[in-house]
Write a structure and sequence with these properties.
This protein is mainly beta. Helix content is 12%, strand content 51%. The chain is built from one helix and three strands. This is DUF4295 domain-containing protein.
Length: 51
């Protein structure tokens, strides 16, 4: 599983990170990309999640 944090986003009061991970689709077996914008502290937990 490849994973990469793409960008740090800053809004007026919050600092956010956009993370993209590549996971294998259970139906077709092809790789799909999942994107999420979250707080930097939650990135490692999100990557550890196998969904």
């Amino acid at each position: 599983m490849a994973k990469k944090t793409v960008a740090s986003l800053q809004t007026s009061s919050k600092r956010l990170t956009k993370a993209i991970k590549m996971v294998r689709s259970p139906k077709s077996g092809a790789y799909i990309f999942q994107e999420s914008v979250m707080a930097p502290e939650a990135v490692n937990q999100w990557f550890a999640n196998k969904n």
